[in-house]
Write a structure and sequence with these properties.
It contains three helices and no strands. The protein is elongated. It starts with a helix and ends with a helix. With 96 residues, it is an all-alpha fold. The longest helix has 39 residues. α1 packs antiparallel against α2. Helix content is 85%, strand content 0%.
Length: 96
């Protein structure tokens, strides 16, 4: 059972990694949309900014939220514990 969970988590980590990379890239593309709107100006710029803000950004936010939950489930399947000091770290961080 433990090996099966680890194999599933390895596949899920790959999906999580690519998904987060795509969402971050899409979020970065909004910069170019706003830059284009700044260069164009006028009514078209307003339409571009409104579309980015009302249509594109909510999709990015929802996708990133789902992917983060997916990543947490992946960590749970692998038996990993995030943000907890291990024995090695706690000895190194003691009095120096």
């Amino acid at each position: 059972m433990k090996e099966t969970c680890k194999k599933i988590s390895e596949v899920c980590k790959i999906i999580f990694g690519y998904g987060i990379m795509i969402v971050l890239f899409a979020g970065g593309l909004t910069f170019f949309g706003y830059l284009l709107a700044l260069l164009i100006g006028g009514e078209k710029a307003t339409a571009i900014c409104t579309w980015i803000y009302k249509s594109f950004i909510p999709v990015i936010i929802y996708a990133s939220t789902v992917l983060i939950l997916f990543g947490l489930a992946t960590m749970y399947l692998a038996g990993e514990k995030a943000l907890t000091p291990g024995i090695k770290n706690s000895k190194d961080e003691g009095e120096k």
